[in-house]
Description:
Blueprint: H1 3-17, H2 22-29, H3 33-40, H4 48-58
Amino acid sequence: MTDIEKFGKKIRKLRLDNKMSQEAFAYESGLHRTDIGSVERAEKNLTIKNVFKIAKALGIDPSDLFKFEK
């Protein structure tokens, strides 16, 4: 699994742990729902600006998004 895939998987897990649909998460983060899906499927790279938006919507530090399980 690539780091991009791990990143997307982590976002999806955290979103689901927060019981948020892609639509609700997109609204909270200020991103489009299709962008959230593309990131979770590792089809799209994010700008650092959007990484911060996602972290804020999840209520976590941005660095936590890059801590992958082994």
